Every structure is written in structure tokens, then in C-alpha cells.
Amino acid sequence: MAATQKLRKSSGAPVASGQSSSYAALLRPVAAQRFAPFTASPRIVAPLNTWRQRVDARRAPVLVVVRAAADANDGRTPDHPYPWEEDFDLLGDKVKEVTDELAKDLKGCNIWLVGMMGSGKSTVGKMLANTLKYAFFDTDSVIELAHDKRPVSSIFAEEGQDYFRQCESQIVKELSPYRNLVIATGGGAVLRPENWGYMQMGIVCWLHGDTALLARRVAKDGIEKRPLLADGLPAAAAGAEGGPSAAELEAAAKSKLDSLLEQRRKYYENADVVVPLEGFGRDAESGAPTAAVMYRLLTAVNEKVQAKKREQAERMNFRIEGAEQLKNMRTMESPAARGAEPLEGQA
Ligand SMILES: Nc1ncnc2c1ncn2[C@@H]1O[C@H](COP(=O)(O)OP(=O)(O)OP(=O)(O)O)[C@@H](O)[C@H]1O
Ligand SMILES: O=C(O)C1=C[C@@H](O)[C@@H](O)[C@H](O)C1
Predict the structure, then answer these.
(1) What is the ipTM of this complex?
(2) Ligand 1 atom 19: the closest Cα is on which residue?
(3) Which among 64, 133, 318, 319 would be 20 to 30 A from 17, CA to CA?
(4) Is the CB of 216 under 6 A from ligand 1?
């Protein structure tokens, strides 16, 4: 969807604009245009090409075997459980295959991404939106946009967490009636039951990774951007004189993420699908590549959607006992049809 194109509700009504105390005027796809569809993106394909050349050179003889294994037994080899995650040609084909099947049955249903800070909701969400030809929203970004582009950390500090959560719920509510959206929510959006009421109108996907992986990512990004992690930590930047070392910041982030996940796990578990972030081999430290996470998500959503379709078909496959006798049933003719005077009180 082009960035300027107006969103449409499922009813086909265009977005209302100029409503006060509403985010509607801001509800334009903000970032989907940054990635082209997975198979065609120069930004993705170019680095992958060079990376693939390196891998191919290193593994040329192995690759033939791996490809054959992938065809033969769904790719599960002792070396790498999912060889297509290392071979982006293969992954591209698999993404296309699953997207082609899913797009027919998804029928514009929204995809909501939930998960802890650093799980990659925004990164995966943008690529997913382009692959499905959906628009992309990030609730944190919409809130920032609505507050003169002030960062989330400043809104937390000035207006408080409750206020932030109200804004988040308002956006979730306003986005839910639209179609063809991928929405990356803030890590805490799962805490409010009212948000679930809206998110469950679509498909909710939990990006779930080890807290050690999440801590590595958020520490690299800068913990100060995440107010719930920065709270109580030394203000000095990592590596600054007298400040905590990068390793200390990462350890502190991990410990906070552990306790947040403990509180939130039961909410995340309400998601329709769980998408693991785990990476193998060279990706063990950084987690599975974004395209691989997206493929895992597409596969899980497709399984869900196809199961629902089978269930619906099954429900239609019934027979009315004694249906052959229906033709003998007598029905009462209404007084109006007989042309009779209506009974008192029934006029
Ligand atoms: N598959 C991946 N491999 C390596 N790094 C990744 C991957 N996905 C995301 N990242 C990195 O992890 C960091 C967090 O990603 P992102 O902002 O998408 O997460 P998020 O879930 O939206 O986080 P938050 O809820 O805190 O906004 C970013 O630096 C991003 O580049
Ligand atoms: O996990 C959380 O509670 C948060 C995650 C971020 O995305 C922001 O929404 C905010 O920093 C709160």
C-alpha cells in the first residue's frame, strides 16, 4: 500500500480525519515502504548476495547435499535444522510458496506482533507487511508522532506510564477495524485486557526469544531508549569514565527482562502463534535472521488459518436427520397472508 493511500475500514469507509483526541489523522502507514517484498528487495538481496557468495565459496560441496536433504526430509539435518535459513534462494522460494497459499485465505485479516523489547517486532513487521502487501504500523512510533516526535522515554518521564498505556490502547482500538495491517505493539500492550479484545479480531503472533538474546540487542541499541530497563540503572553511557561497562549494562538489562517476562509470560501465551527467535550456528548469538523469523511466522499463521478453514469445511459437512420428511411438514399461514383481520394488539 502506498504511504499516502488512505486506510479503509472493513466496511470500506475511509479514515475519518481531524477528530480531536483521536489518532485517526495520524493513521497512515508509516514505514511499510522501507522494505520491498522479501524476494525483490535490493536492501536485503544485495547484502545476502555477498554473504551468500561467501557461504557458497565455503560450502559449495555441502550445499548440494543440504539442498537435497531439504527436499528429501523437510531440511532437517544434524548440522542445521533449517538449511533454508542459510540459503536465501531457498528461503525466498519457501516464503513465496507459503505467502501464495496464505494470502488467499488471510482475506486482509490484521497481524498483531507482540513480544518483549528487542524481540524484533518492528524489524520483522516491516518485512512482513511488504511481503503480504499490507501496511505497517508501530504503536510506539504513532505515539511519538502524536507527541511532536518526542521519544517514548520522554513521554514516560513527563506524562508517566499510565498515560502512555492509555495512548497505546487508544491506537490499538483505532487500528483494529481496518484491514490489511501488520501492527507492531509496544512490549507492554499485552497487559491490558481491553487491548486483547481488539487484537483478537486479527491474528496475534508472539515473537519469543531468550532474554539473553533480547538483552544483547537492547544493550546494543542503547538501554536509555527503553524506560522500563533504564529505570534505576546508572545514567552514564556504557564505557564512559566511571560508568558501567557494556557487559554490566547487558547483565542489568537481562535481569530486568527476566523479571518483566516472568510477569508477562501468561499474557503473551494468549497469542495465536508463537514464533521462536532462536538462531543456529553462526546466528546463535544474534538470533535467526529477520527473513527466517518472518518465514517461521508465515508458516505458523498459515497452519492456523488452514486448520480453521478445514474446521469450517468440516462443520458444513453435516446431514439433517430425517431431511427427507421435511417436504411433509405443514407450516402455519400468517393471518396477514390469509388476508384476515389482525388479532387485537398485533396490528
Ligand atoms: N533477526 C534479527 N537479527 C539481528 N538483530 C535483530 C533482528 N531483529 C531485530 N534485530 C535488532 O534488535 C533490535 C530491536 O529490534 P526491534 O526494534 O525491531 O524490536 P522491537 O520488538 O520492536 O523492540 P521494542 O518493543 O523495544 O521497540 C534492533 O537493533 C534490531 O536491529
Ligand atoms: O515492554 C514495555 O513495556 C515497553 C516496550 C516499548 O516498546 C515501549 O512501548 C515502552 O518502552 C514500554
Answers:
(1) 0.98
(2) 120
(3) 133
(4) no
